[in-house]
């Protein structure tokens, strides 16, 4: 494999990691503050993608569709939190898993009912369809946009959590929710805000990725599994951990799928090498998770350490 191709795949891994960070940051924020296991987070990713594709098709504006996707997922998140999730905070994790799994089915069928069961296609704006040269690598502008958006979101979350009054309340809620309630903070409003932020991030991720693949029912569940891997690696409740974990998973997964089949071609036929390499590549991130947990059982950057 050439150096240029390796660098291109490294950028693809970073772009994939950014998408996972947008998913995982909202998921870890919700779990860290509320102690809630939300299996329906992937469905909010799907809702954002469908709203973005629909609004873009109606208005012809990708940027308006992107905003609508994040906002639509946030609104759906608020509705879900008020009607269902709010009743689960004091329940055990098994009840949370069962209830949010039911939400997956409800949101999937509801999305199919509203938007149809056929995949939607989201066109990249013409201004973002080209490529630019980064040294020896020619890389798509749109994928660079996704990386930039991820960096800006990470910076925004850092400022929100560490530099604002609402961020101070969120950090306090992670450590002692009973105490901040006793101090007069409206816990219900705080939880709804955090859930809406997490849903908006998931919707933004789905909207951005919708231009790279078909937008279809059930598209969020595979990404949700990877997002859980990310927060386990990075440390539950940690935005920093979500960012580092997402980068590790994105780069390891992308480079593994390219490098392993090439490596095995030294020992076997190309078709067999591709099959074996792809199978092993799909296991790499789980091996990475096992190794990290063996060394640091709470993940790389647990929130309360």
Defining traits:
305 residues; mainly alpha; ABC transporter involved in vitamin B12 uptake, BtuC; two-stranded antiparallel ribbon; 11 helices; 2 strands; 74% helix
Q: Give the H and E element order.
A: HHHHEEHHHHHHH
CATH topology: ABC transporter involved in vitamin B12 uptake, BtuC
Contiguous low-pLDDT stretches (5 residues minimum) are none
The helix fraction, in percent, is over 70%
Instruction: Give the domain tally.
Output: 1
Strand count: 2
Shape: globular
Percent of residues in beta strands?
A: under 5%
Count of separate DSSP helical elements: 11
* Average pLDDT level: 84
The CATH architecture name reads Orthogonal Bundle
For the record, the CATH class is Mainly Alpha
Q: Helix- and strand-based class?
A: mainly alpha
Supply Rg: 20 Å
Oligomer: single chain
Largest sheet: 2 strands, antiparallel
Give an overview of the whole structure.
- The protein is mainly alpha-helical and 305 residues long.
- It has one domain (3-295): ABC transporter involved in vitamin B12 uptake, BtuC, CATH 1.10.3470.
- The chain contains 11 helices and 2 strands, in the order H-H-H-H-E-E-H-H-H-H-H-H-H.
- The N and C termini lie far apart (42 Å).
- The relative contact order is 0.19.
- The mean pLDDT is 84.
Compose a concise summary of this entry:
The chain is mainly alpha-helical.
Write the layout of secondary structure elements.
Elements: H1 3-34, H2 41-59, H3 62-83, H4 93-115, E1 131-134, E2 137-140, H5 141-163, H6 165-175, H7 177-182, H8 187-209, H9 220-234, H10 239-264, H11 270-295
Helix pairs in contact: 1-5, 1-8, 1-9, 1-10, 2-3, 2-4, 2-8, 2-9, 3-8, 5-6, 9-10, 9-11, 10-11
